[in-house]
Design a protein that fits this description.
Elements lengths: L1 E9 L2 E5 L5 E5 L5 E10 L2 H10 L8 E4 L5 E2 L10 E3 L13 E7 L3 E10 L4 E4 L13 E10 L5 E3 L5 E9 L33 E2 L2 E2 L12 E5 L2 E5 L5 E5 L5 E10 L2 H14 L6 E4 L17 E4 L4 H5 L7 E6 L4 E11 L6 E5 L12 E12 L3 E8 L2 E10 L3
Antiparallel strand pairs: 1-4, 1-26, 2-3, 4-13, 5-11, 6-11, 7-10, 8-9, 8-11, 9-10, 11-13, 12-13, 14-15, 16-19, 17-18, 19-27, 20-25, 21-24, 22-23, 22-25, 23-24, 25-27, 26-27
């Protein structure tokens, strides 16, 4: 019985950083490596004996395992002599690269296993053989199956002579070329979101040809960030301390947690990570922080915004970063403005944010919910781990690294 379930996608990106922190990135994997981790409880002697025996498996021994987090119902009953099985399209993402399908009964009798030949855009699976019995829609649970091998760190705990627990950590041997998703369901096509974060619909899919990551943080925990400045410390430990400033660009890393409440949200998050190939491809995303506070309404034709904090010029004027802002409006819409530069007003009390083009409509202070920077990020890890609470609810913790391009 699996109680804790996680799935990991792992790309491999080679990154070369120049002296000024400019990056050149190259993908070393076309498809991600995929692994799963399930906690099992052996509730009787036979189950516990099997779990302990797995600890003695040869490292190169290939096993086949159902992907328990991807279980789903048939969308139509399947009958004897059928070679096609119909599923809802939202369930097909997890079947990519898998070798087979299992019609599950229970823990004692197991299920019936068939090989998969192809996946189709209508949600159907083509099997390599015909069904040997009827499988009714209301009572049949279907699981994709995949070959894999146990990782080296597997261990078990015995609580009694008959009760054993063990976490199975399996690297899957997916064959994406054999059972690939149809174009209509691949990583470049999103499913309908069941639940959306604030302003998700208002954000455009891309800006200047670069994807925009649309999800706001779940704020289930603190949003942690750290900075590494691009400078070398020159310290002989007895004299003066000096720094060799390589560039003005600090490396910001933000740890963000996302709660995903439907299978479509889980699939779409993994799709975005797959499109980026881990750390390879950068994207735009709002900071989702109140980075500016508007002091007064900006009239139509105005070339600047007057904001509360006066010192933006001191920290951002020399950077090519932080030159895009996104304004969230009470109407539920957003506006993106390129920034030409920063200054202060004549009194020095407020900051001036100069825009690249004049406002085409007034920006009223009462209409503004928040102003954030729209930054260029990439994922700071080639690995994405999805922790499942149920088959349709999961948690993802990931990190963003701010980059120039």
């Amino acid at each position: 019985m699996a109680t804790e379930i996680s799935e990991t996608l792992a790309f491999k990106t080679q990154i070369h950083k120049a002296w000024d922190a400019t990056e050149q990135r190259m993908a070393l994997r076309v498809y991600p490596r995929r692994s799963i981790a399930y906690d099992y409880y052996g509730m009787n002697a036979a189950q516990s004996q099997y779990l302990r025996a797995l600890s003695y498996a040869k490292q190169n021994q290939k096993i086949e395992i159902p992907l328990w987090h991807a279980g789903c119902r048939l969308s139509e009953s399947a009958y004897t002599d059928f070679s096609h099985v119909s599923l809802d399209t939202v369930n097909l993402w997890q079947f990519r690269g898998c070798s087979g399908v299992m019609f599950w009964r229970n823990d004692k009798t197991g299920g019936d296993r068939y090989f998969v030949k192809a996946l189709y855009a209508d949600g159907s699976l083509k099997l390599t053989e015909i069904l040997e019995q009827d499988y009714l829609k209301a009572s049949t649970v279907v699981y994709p199956t995949s070959y894999g091998y146990l990782k080296q760190e597997d261990k078990y705990s015995a609580y009694s002579s008959n009760l054993t627990t063990m976490q199975l950590n399996v690297d899957l041997l997916d064959d994406y070329s054999l059972t690939s998703l149809p174009t209509a369901l691949n990583e470049y096509n999103y499913e309908a979101w069941k639940k959306k974060t604030p302003f998700q619909d208002a954000l455009p899919a891309s800006y200047l040809g670069v994807d925009i990551f649309p999800l706001a943080p779940s704020w289930t925990g603190d949003l942690a960030a750290n900075f590494t400045r691009n400078a070398n410390l020159l310290d002989n430990e007895t004299g003066l301390v000096k720094y060799d400033l390589k560039s003005v660009y600090a490396s910001e890393n933000k740890e963000i947690e996302y709660e995903l409440f439907s299978r479509s949200e889980i699939n779409n998050f993994q799709r975005f990570f797959t499109r980026c190939k881990g750390r390879l491809k950068s994207f735009y995303a709002p900071t989702w922080l109140s980075d500016m506070t508007l002091v007064e309404t900006a009239s139509s034709g105005q070339l600047y915004l007057l904001v509360e904090w006066p010192l933006y010029w001191k920290y951002y004027a020399s950077l090519s970063r932080r030159k895009l802002i996104i304004v969230y409006l009470r109407s539920g819409s957003v506006k993106i403005f390129p920034v030409a530069g920063y200054s202060t007003d004549s009194t020095g009390e407020y900051g001036k944010v100069y825009l690249e083009s004049a406002l085409t409509a007034p920006l009223r202070k009462s209409d503004v919910v928040m102003i954030s920077f729209l930054c260029r990020y990439r994922f700071d890890s080639d690995t994405l781990t999805t922790d499942y609470d149920t088959t349709g609810i999961a948690n993802v913790s990931t990190s963003f690294a701010e980059v120039n391009a």
